[in-house]
């Protein structure tokens, strides 16, 4: 009887862990969207204005920018940012958090920007706070 209870408990724990595991999508452009927390609100389109918290890092883990450095969530038109963001954030729902892995071609390409060297893959952790109407 004890082994049956232990087996059932293990099955419940493993199914709970599987349900909580992040889901990952690889887009045709090579952008990888790893959903860390599924949102429950609407999904933005490329022409929407979004409000997000974010943190951007270089391949070595060095943070190069974050919304916290600028005093809180950032608001911008989704079609006025790097292609990785336009593509990746459209896959999110309001309330969701995701890790976007951006190949250099979908980030800043061969033009370095500030602390970001040319041809650098970038990673962003993004929380979609709202779609601004």
Automatic annotation (TrEMBL):
PANTHER family, A to Z: 39 KDA FK506-BINDING NUCLEAR PROTEIN, FKBP-TYPE PEPTIDYL-PROLYL CIS-TRANS ISOMERASE FKPA
Documented EC number(s): 5.2.1.8
Family (UniProt): Belongs to the FKBP-type PPIase family.
Organism: Paraburkholderia monticola
Assigned keywords, A-Z: Isomerase, Rotamase, Signal
Name this polypeptide is given: Peptidyl-prolyl cis-trans isomerase
Signal peptide: 1-19
Classification of source organism: Bacteria, Pseudomonadati, Pseudomonadota, Betaproteobacteria, Burkholderiales
Reaction equation(s) it catalyzes: [protein]-peptidylproline (omega=180) = [protein]-peptidylproline (omega=0)
Function: PPIases accelerate the folding of proteins.
Single annotated GO MF: peptidyl-prolyl cis-trans isomerase activity
UniProt domain PPIase FKBP-type: residue ranges: 47-132
């Amino acid at each position: 009887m004890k082994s049956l209870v232990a087996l059932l408990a293990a099955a419940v724990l493993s199914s709970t862990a599987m349900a909580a595991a992040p889901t990952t999508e690889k887009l045709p452009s090579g952008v990888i969207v790893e959903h860390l927390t599924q949102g429950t609100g609407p999904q933005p389109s490329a022409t929407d204005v979004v409000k997000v918290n974010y943190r951007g890092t270089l391949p070595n883990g060095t943070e190069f920018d974050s919304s916290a450095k600028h005093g809180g969530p950032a608001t911008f038109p989704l079609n006025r940012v790097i292609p990785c963001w336009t593509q990746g954030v459209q896959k999110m729902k309001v309330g969701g958090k995701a890790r976007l892995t951006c190949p250099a071609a979908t980030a800043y390409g061969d033009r370095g920007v500030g602390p970001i060297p040319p041809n650098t893959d970038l990673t962003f952790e993004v929380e979609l706070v709202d779609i601004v109407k």
